[in-house]
C-alpha cells in the first residue's frame, strides 16, 4: 500500500519529509506517528491509518513530494509478504503490478475487506462510491483516530456530520480539512509577474526558498496586487494601558499566575472593537462580501522559518487572562512549528505587533482575504501636554491597513476611533 503525501494545510502544494519515525521493516499500528512532514507553515505529524509493516521509503528525509504522491510503502496486516497484489484491489494508488486483476470488478470485490483500502489524504474525491457503503454517517458510530478527533474538537467540527473516505469509512484528516471552515475564497490570482533575475557572484550566499517562504511571498504579493490598501494611523495615550498591565501583573504574580502583556490587552481590545464593527470583520469573496459572525483574531508571529499567524478563536468572548494564556501557547507552538492546521486557519482579522523590537510605527500587508490588519508600535515615553503643562507621557501608534473593496475610509476611521477609546480606557475592553 502506498503512503501518500498528505494535504496538511489549505495553502500546501507540496511537503518535505522532515523525519521518518519508523524504519523499513518496523511494525506500525493505526494511530502511530509514521512520518513528520514540513508544510508551508509548520512541522506536522502524519500517523498510520492501518496496522502493518513499513516496507519501503520512497522519499528520504529532506526530500519533497507533491500532495498525493507516494512517499513510502507499507504492507498492511493480512497482505502477503511478497507484496503480491491484494485480492480485492482496494488500494487506490498501489504501484506493484496486479497481473491478472480485471479492470473493474470493484463492487463485487468489496465483501469484507474494509480495512485494506488506501490510507493517507487523497486529493479530493477518493474512490467515492466503492468505499462509502461501509461507512455510517449521521448518528452512526464514528470511526476516526485520536488525532483526527482532537483536530475536530479544536476546529469545532462535528465528526458525525462527515462521511469518511478512509479505510472502512474511517474519517481521515483530509475529510476533516475539507469540512473545516475555510477562509473565504481568495481573490482570483492575476497574471504572475516574471521573477527578476538576480545576478549572483562568488561572494554571495544563496539560500533556496523553503515552502513556507515561498508561500509567504506568493500570498503577500497577491494581497498587495489584488487588494487596494489604504492606511489609517492614530497615536493613543498608552498610559492607562501600562497602568492596567502593572496592576494586573502585580496581582497575578502574587497569585502565582502568569503575567499578561500589552499585546494581550491590544488583542482583547481589537476583538471587542471588531464585534462592534462587523464591516471590519469581513472578507472580500469572488462575488460577495462575507461578514463573519464570529471574531477570530490572528496574531502574526515571527519564526526563524518565516511569518506564521495562529488564530485566537472567539476572542471577543474570552477573558483577558484566557487570551494571554492561549496567545502564549500558540506563539510557542508557532516557533516550534507545531501548530495544527486548525490553529492557523480561519482568522477574520490580524494583529501584527513589532513594538517589542522598538519599532514606533509601521504599516502591514493584509492577510488575505481579510478586510484589515492592525500594525502596533512600541509603547514609548515622550514629552506631551497634560493639563496645560509639559509632562512625560506614554504613547503608542497603531496603523490600520484596510482593503478598500470591503471597507470605506469613514468606516475604517470609525473602527479606529472606537479601538483608540478602548486602548485609552482598557477597563472597557477587559470587563
UniProtKB/TrEMBL annotation:
Respond yes or no to whether keyword Transmembrane is given for this record.
no
Annotated GO biological process = pyruvate decarboxylation to acetyl-CoA
Provide the cofactor list for this protein.
(R)-lipoate
* Domain Peripheral subunit-binding (PSBD), first and last residues per copy: 143-180
Domain Lipoyl-binding stretches: 1-75
Database matches in Gene3D superfamilies: 2.40.50.100, Chloramphenicol acetyltransferase-like domain (3.30.559.10), E3-binding domain (4.10.320.10)
Which GO MF terms are attached to this record? acyltransferase activity
| Enzyme Commission code | 2.3.1.-
- The ranges of region (Disordered) come to 79-138
Q: PROSITE patterns from the xrefs?
A: BIOTINYL_LIPOYL, PSBD
What Pfam families does the database record attribute to this sequence?
2-oxoacid_dh, Biotin_lipoyl, E3_binding
**Bias-annotated ranges (Low complexity):** 95-123
Which top EC class is named for this enzyme in its record?
Answer: transferase
Q: Which UniProt keywords apply?
A: Acyltransferase, Lipoyl, Pyruvate, Transferase
Q: Name one GO cellular component term.
A: pyruvate dehydrogenase complex
Task: Give the family this protein belongs to, as stated in its UniProt record.
Answer: Belongs to the 2-oxoacid dehydrogenase family.
- PANTHER family, per the entry: DIHYDROLIPOAMIDE ACETYL/SUCCINYL-TRANSFERASE-RELATED (PTHR23151), DIHYDROLIPOYLLYSINE-RESIDUE ACETYLTRANSFERASE COMPONENT OF PYRUVATE DEHYDROGENASE COMPLEX, MITOCHONDRIAL-RELATED (PTHR23151:SF90)
Recorded protein name is Dihydrolipoamide acetyltransferase component of pyruvate dehydrogenase complex
Q: Which organism is it from?
A: Actinocatenispora sera
Amino acid at each position: 500500500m502506498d503512503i501518500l503525501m498528505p494535504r496538511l494545510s489549505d495553502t500546501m502544494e507540496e511537503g518535505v519529509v522532515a523525519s521518518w519515525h519508523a524504519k523499513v521493516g518496523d511494525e506500525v499500528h493505526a494511530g502511530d506517528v509514521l512520518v513528520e512532514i514540513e508544510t508551508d507553515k509548520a512541522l506536522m505529524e502524519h500517523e498510520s491509518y492501518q496496522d502493518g509493516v513499513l516496507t519501503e521509503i520512497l522519499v528520504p528525509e529532506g526530500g519533497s513530494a507533491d500532495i498525493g504522491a507516494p512517499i513510502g510503502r507499507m504492507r498492511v496486516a493480512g497482505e502477503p509478504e511478497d507484496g503480491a497484489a491484494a485480492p480485492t484491489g482496494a488500494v487506490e494508488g498501489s504501484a506493484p503490478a496486479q497481473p491478472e486483476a480485471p479492470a473493474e470488478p470493484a463492487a463485487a470485490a468489496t465483501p469484507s475487506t474494509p480495512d485494506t483500502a488506501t490510507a493517507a489524504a487523497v486529493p479530493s474525491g477518493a474512490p467515492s462510491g466503492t468505499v462509502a457503503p461501509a461507512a455510517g454517517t449521521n448518528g452512526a458510530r464514528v470511526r476516526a483516530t485520536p488525532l483526527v478527533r482532537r483536530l475536530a474538537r479544536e476546529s469545532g467540527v462535528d465528526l458525525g456530520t462527515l462521511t469518511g473516505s478512509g479505510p472502512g469509512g474511517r474519517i481521515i484528516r483530509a475529510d476533516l480539512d475539507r469540512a473545516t471552515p475555510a477562509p473565504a475564497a481568495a481573490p482570483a490570482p492575476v497574471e504572475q509577474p516574471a521573477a527578476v533575475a538576480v545576478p549572483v557572484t562568488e561572494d554571495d550566499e544563496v539560500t533556496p526558498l523553503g515552502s513556507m517562504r515561498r508561500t509567504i511571498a506568493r500570498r503577500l504579493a497577491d494581497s498587495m496586487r489584488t487588494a487596494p490598501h489604504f492606511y489609517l494611523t492614530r497615536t493613543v495615550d498608552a498610559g492607562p494601558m501600562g497602568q492596567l498591565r502593572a496592576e494586573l501583573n502585580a496581582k497575578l504574580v502574587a497569585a502565582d499566575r502568569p503575567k499578561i502583556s500589552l499585546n494581550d490587552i491590544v488583542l482583547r481590545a481589537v476583538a471587542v472593537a471588531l464585534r462592534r464593527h462587523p464591516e471590519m470583520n469581513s472578507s472580500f469573496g469572488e462575488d460577495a462580501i462575507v461578514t463573519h459572525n464570529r471574531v477570530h483574531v490572528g496574531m502574526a508571529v515571527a519564526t526563524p522559518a518565516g511569518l506564521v499567524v495562529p488564530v485566537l478563536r472567539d476572542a471577543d468572548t474570552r477573558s483577558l487572562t484566557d487570551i494571554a494564556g492561549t496567545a502564549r501557547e500558540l506563539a510557542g507552538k508557532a516557533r516550534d512549528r507545531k501548530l495544527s492546521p486548525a490553529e492557523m486557519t480561519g482568522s477574520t482579522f490580524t494583529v501584527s505587533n513589532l513594538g517589542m523590537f522598538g519599532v514606533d510605527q509601521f504599516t502591514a500587508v493584509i492577510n488575505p482575504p481579510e478586510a484589515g490588519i492592525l500594525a502596533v508600535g512600541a509603547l514609548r515615553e515622550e514629552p506631551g501636554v497634560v493639563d496645560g503643562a509639559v509632562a512625560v507621557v506614554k504613547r503608542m501608534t497603531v496603523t490600520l491597513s484596510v482593503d478598500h473593496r470591503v471597507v470605506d475610509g469613514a468606516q475604517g476611521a470609525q473602527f479606529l476611533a472606537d479601538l483608540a477609546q478602548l486602548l485609552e480606557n482598557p477597563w472597557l475592553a477587559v470587563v
